[in-house]
Design brief:
The protein is α+β, with helices and mostly antiparallel strands. The protein is built from 19 helices and 10 strands. The strands form 3 sheets. It has a 5-stranded mixed sheet with strand order 1-2-5-4-3. Strands 6-7-8 form a 3-stranded antiparallel sheet, with helices on one face.
Length: 426
Amino acid sequence: MHTSIQKHFESLKHDYKTDYSVVYTWVKDHIDLLDKNHKWLFSNKSHPIILEVLIIYLLNKNDLLQASYYLYAFKKSIGDGVAFRLLCASYSIKSNSYDTAYELLISVLKQAPQGSNTWLMLIECCCKNKWLDRGIFFSKKALTQQEWKPKTQLELKTKLNNFYFTNYEFKKSIFTSQDILQSFLDLDMFFIDDADKLPFKPEVAMTALGDFIALCEADEVKAFPIAGTLLGLHRDGALMPYDKDIDIAISTEDSMDIIKVIIEKNPRYSIDTDLIHINTYMSIYDKKLLVTIDILKFWEEDGKFYYGWQLPGKYEKESRLLTFTPFHLVKRKFKEQELYTPNNCDLFLSELYGNWKIPDPYYYSVLANNLQKITSLSEAISYRFLIASLRHKKEKKAITIINALQHWENKDPLLVEIKKKYETKI
């Protein structure tokens, strides 16, 4: 058996020692053989990279038990140097032991401050544990540490942007987004594919929609489709194939606290804790069907209905709020599912989208028709979506976002430059 795995190993490209992606693919393809050849793996001290990448592969699969077993073998093979401490830090982050990970990564940086992966892991550790001030500090320090490769610079700037946004520092987030966009222009690096992004499957999403609404109704909460989800159902009788998630709302009588209780009782769902705290919005993930569900809360004030991102305390003035004519809920049937919808769907969609009857896959809803005013929150979100659109090769969506920002009198010359560059390609 050892001979067989050795032959497979020798089939690796000659540059495997420096190309982790080659080794990662090899490990993934030969995981069963590796599991059956522990003695070969542990005795093969001249190639610890195989063991290292195997541990990374197991951590990516969240197989912490197997990863801990191979970590022990890795330490016996090469000792407790930098590579071992980095793997232990990855293991600690995966197992939510952030203090341990933090200490390990700081010790590695003292010994080897030139490692970009170490900086990125340290920043990720701060993000996971909501150490926002530390995250901002280390992101800025990493950027000034040395001349990183362009891709690493962009990763660090993106991390810094995320920390600013999560810390309600929206103007700094906008400035960092502009810096990222300028880097993209200067380096001509706009298009960075996100190969891991899961495609939106309307049939699966429809099942996820019905399942979650049924959970809410079991707790006497009236949840109903809203925004793009309602638009697709009302206009087309089905979810739009170019959508990216499910949009659900709860009525003025219901509470987001009840929604949190419903989610906590059901391990199928997880709350996105990377978002800023918003009183009237949360994003959850259906781990069974792999669908994101955005949940919004309606409330009534001065004879109007509101929904959007209502921020807490001193940040309230930056909230992103949309206004609607009041409505009541009625049950309708869609694809064998009975769902609540506003009784005035035509008016509701007109207030939100304008001419909603003509499909527009590039419509940008953050700066919707009935937005009360543009705040630094709405602007920061828009710049972040602009970056994401360009990363995912969605030039038309990017132009739509730029047009929406300019409609709200954004005079940023960088937007003009980007628009000029990509309008000719559409």
